[in-house]
Automatic annotation (TrEMBL):
<comment type="subunit">
    <text>Monomer or homodimer.</text>
</comment>
<keyword id="KW-0560">Oxidoreductase</keyword>
<keyword id="KW-0007">Acetylation</keyword>
<dbReference type="InterPro" id="IPR036291">
    <property type="entry name" value="NAD(P)-bd_dom_sf"/>
</dbReference>
<dbReference type="GO" id="GO:0005737">
    <property type="term" value="C:cytoplasm"/>
</dbReference>
<feature type="domain" description="Enoyl reductase (ER)">
    <location>
        <begin position="15"/>
        <end position="336"/>
    </location>
</feature>
<dbReference type="InterPro" id="IPR045010">
    <property type="entry name" value="MDR_fam"/>
</dbReference>
<dbReference type="InterPro" id="IPR020843">
    <property type="entry name" value="ER"/>
</dbReference>
<dbReference type="Pfam" id="PF00107">
    <property type="entry name" value="ADH_zinc_N"/>
</dbReference>
<keyword id="KW-0379">Hydroxylation</keyword>
<dbReference type="GO" id="GO:0032440">
    <property type="term" value="F:2-alkenal reductase [NAD(P)H] activity"/>
</dbReference>
<dbReference type="InterPro" id="IPR011032">
    <property type="entry name" value="GroES-like_sf"/>
</dbReference>
<keyword id="KW-0597">Phosphoprotein</keyword>
<keyword id="KW-0521">NADP</keyword>
<keyword id="KW-0443">Lipid metabolism</keyword>
<protein>
    <recommendedName>
        <fullName>Prostaglandin reductase 1</fullName>
        <ecNumber>1.3.1.48</ecNumber>
        <ecNumber>1.3.1.74</ecNumber>
    </recommendedName>
</protein>
<comment type="similarity">
    <text>Belongs to the NADP-dependent oxidoreductase L4BD family.</text>
</comment>
């Protein structure tokens, strides 16, 4: 008999998530049946979407999220013992997986997949640069911004999992890249190690003023991870026919959806700049994920795509890692090692 640990959502988040919104519980798992397999979590992801998305589910659910897990018992020939899967199993240490319970294609209901052999790379990358955030950067930037060499790209959340990746694709595509992030250390990392042309620390510098200096000819592509006032400022410095990929809005994730913060109107910038502003969910390109994985892996092997992980040790520290990521404590992908 295996005892699983899990985080149960006992209260919907209000404002910043608080430790007692979640509770660790244990559960005795049943013996596996034909077609099922038992997995043990190795790495668990903490992602911004968990904050707003969890409100869609009733209290009492296991907190939503994805993990890389090792198969430790199996009655399914396609999922042999010893191999690894990546899937939306929630914040749990052990899980009996029955694929019939995963019928959808969205967060929390897409079926777990075998993690491909990644050679000597860490399996945790299946949650980051070689997983969902990597697909988000690849498709969300290339398909919506349609970048051209010589153009100027601004990316916010620039030292995070998605933003750090987008900026590097921008460099690969021959653009001038300006990243906006929340600390000097982050700004150093993206310029000195990742090759961004410039960085702005939005906590200590005036984004509008700095952008005028760094992009005197205007901005062609904006990859928006944060929303809010910073995004309004950027939109007013865009060139005619600029393209904006709206990936996320983390600056408002702690707000109640009925009381979003008021921000500067953006319609004049959109109309007079004839901007294309398009939101997306990465699942739009689910049927092309193989292409994204192959390309991202190739860039890593060629040394063109670098990554960093902020790893928190211990399953019981999931909440700490989650709350820390929302506050900007991570550089690169925030992950928990079980
Ligand atoms: P990150 O690794 O970027 O971590 C979150 C970062 O957000 C923090 O490190 C922090 O960095 C920054 N942040 C927090 N609060 C604010 C704020 N008020 N203003 C500006 N920045 C803030 O996370 P991901 O790379 O996983 O996700 C980045 C964005 O992409 C999120 O908005 C997420 O929801 C979105 N996303 C969207 C997907 C889609 O399908 N559309 C899929 C995956 C992600 P700092 O120190 O710089 O403030």
């Amino acid at each position: 008999m295996v005892t699983a640990k899990k985080f149960v959502l006992v209260k919907h988040f209000e404002g910043e998530p608080k430790p007692d919104d979640l509770q660790i519980e244990t559960e005795e798992l049943p013996a596996i049946q034909d077609g099922e397999f038992l997995v043990e979590a190795e790495y668990l992801s903490v992602d911004p979407y968990m904050r707003p998305y969890s409100a869609r589910f009733p209290v009492g659910i296991t907190m939503i999220g994805s993990q890389v897990a090792k198969i430790i018992e199996s009655k399914n020939q396609h999922f042999p013992v010893g191999s690894r899967i990546v899937g939306y199993l929630g914040w749990r240490s052990h899980t009996v997986v029955n694929l019939k319970n995963f019928q959808g294609s969205g967060v929390a209901d897409a079926p777990p997949m075998l993690l491909p052999d990644m050679g000597n790379l860490s399996p945790s990358l299946g949650l980051g640069v070689l997983g969902m955030p990597g697909q988000t950067a690849y498709f969300g930037f290339l398909e919506i911004c349609k970048p051209k060499a010589g153009e100027t790209l601004v990316v916010t959340g620039a030292a995070g999992a998605v933003g750090s990746h987008v900026g590097q694709i921008g460099k690969i595509a021959g653009l001038k890249v300006i990243g906006i992030a929340g600390s000097d250390d982050k700004c150093q990392w993206i310029t000195k190690e990742l090759g961004f042309d410039h960085a702005i620390n939005y906590k200590t510098q005036n984004v509008g003023v700095e952008l005028k200096k760094l992009a005197p000819n205007g901005i062609d592509c904006y990859f928006d991870n944060v929303g809010g006032e910073i995004s309004s400022t950027i939109l007013y410095q865009m060139n005619t026919f600029g393209r904006v990929s709206v990936c996320g809005s983390i600056s408002s994730y702690n707000a109640d959806s009925s009381a979003y913060p008021k921000a500067t109107v953006i319609q004049p910038a959109a109309v007079f700049g004839q901007l294309k502003i398009e939101g997306f969910l990465v699942t739009r390109w689910a049927d092309r994920f193989l292409e994204g994985s192959v390309k991202n892996l190739q860039w890593i092997k060629e040394g063109k795509l670098k990554y960093r992980e902020t790893i928190t040790n211990g399953f019981e520290n999931m909440f700490k890692a989650f709350a820390g990521m929302l506050k900007g404590e991570n550089i690169g992908k925030a992950v928990v090692k079980a």
